[in-house]
Design brief:
The structure holds 2 protein chains of 2 kinds.
Chain A: H1 8-15, H2 21-31, H3 35-51, H4 64-73, H5 95-107, H6 112-117, E1 129-135, E2 143-148, E3 153-158, E4 167-174, E5 180-185, E6 193-196, E7 206-213, E8 224-229
Antiparallel strand pairs in A: 1-2, 1-8, 2-3, 3-6, 4-5, 4-7, 7-8
Helix pairs in contact in A: 1-3
Chain B: H1 2-5, H2 12-31, H3 34-51, H4 62-78, H5 103-108, H6 113-121, H7 125-135, H8 141-148, H9 152-177
Classes of the chains: A alpha+beta, B mainly alpha.
Amino acid sequence: MTAQTHPDDALAAFALEALPDDERKAVATHLAQCARCRHAVAEFQSVGNAVALTAPPLAAHGGLRARILTEAAATPQYLAQSKKGRGRILPWLTGWVAAAALFILSLGLGSIDVALQQQSGVSAPQPTFAVALAATTDAAGASGSVTVAATQTALSVQHLPPPPPGYVYEAWVIAGASPLPAGTFITTPDGHADLALTQAAVQGSTVAITTEPAPSQPKPTGKVLLKGIIQPAQGS
Amino acid sequence: MAQLAAGSSAALGPLYDRYGSVAYGLAHHMLHDAGAAEDVVQEAFVNIWRSARTFDQQRGNVRGWLLTTVRHCCLDVLRGHAPQTTRNVSIDQAADLPASDDVLSAVLKDIDARSVQQALAALSDDQRETVRLAYFVGLTHVQIAAQQQAPLGTVKGRLRLAMQRLRDLLAYSGATEGGASS
């Protein structure tokens, strides 16, 4: 499938998440290269959202409101990244962790291995928490977050433009001697994507995002665009 | 949303009071199970709380964001996926603001249920049923083709034409009526 052969009959189904996985991936790859089809999908998604309104409103059990408020009170929020703070090390990075992060930012992903080999005490996954990913100068304005739960590590990115034709974004988890590929993705026209990482990001590991030739690469070859060290924020 | 973004989880209460019945109605309509629907709605509202600091009020549509999240959680249930307690749907993944130049999303931001029902009624029976199976039942077009005993190509085309027709009808409705808020 190329940018010239548009998957017109699949776009509505893609927008409604009604495609089988293999076809969904093929369409997603095409969308990375085709603004025309991205626009069509966006319109179909808007239509789908309107269709939701035709479900009859219904009052839930009276205790649901209280359950929601109780769970929210115990749930940390994703950290918003201020414009002033973009590209800077987050305030909760302290000591040698901050130093390692600065080292990584300055030398790129190829040096991450060395920096992380010097670290020790990489621990098991902890209860759900979220950390922000910092943008490098190669992705100014972008932001992201990683949510670590007992069974899943979820990535969310914002303001990361769709990759060039033939390329995808690839997530990496670095917790040992080498970066492990953790999934590829493309972003929506205005730079958003959400996905579950295929590698668990344990505390002390680093999650990084690079641009790579499609469909994926076993080792990173592109510059680091977003990165963060997986540690729970103090006080969150 | 400003209070949520400022870290006040109690502000979810008024949001629930406004949209809770719509969210629960969608979840119950998809799952036909009160307990599962409540779990989904709970997860959706907590997701709103979790991501509130990233919400852009000038561009955002809380209703669309919430309903998209509810539907995604319902699809996980319907398709037998493991519960994704951390599932996060970004506000731009919520269909009301997928592209900054998408005029349609702005038109449909406040459209009401009656306008959508009228648009659905204008579809052929086959088209309307195909949209229902895809959107509310969560079937893939392959599964829809099997259920309707129709060629896959026919179902693909039917869904595309139905969505295009809905798009045109809703755009006209939203533009002419101003999309009265539901």
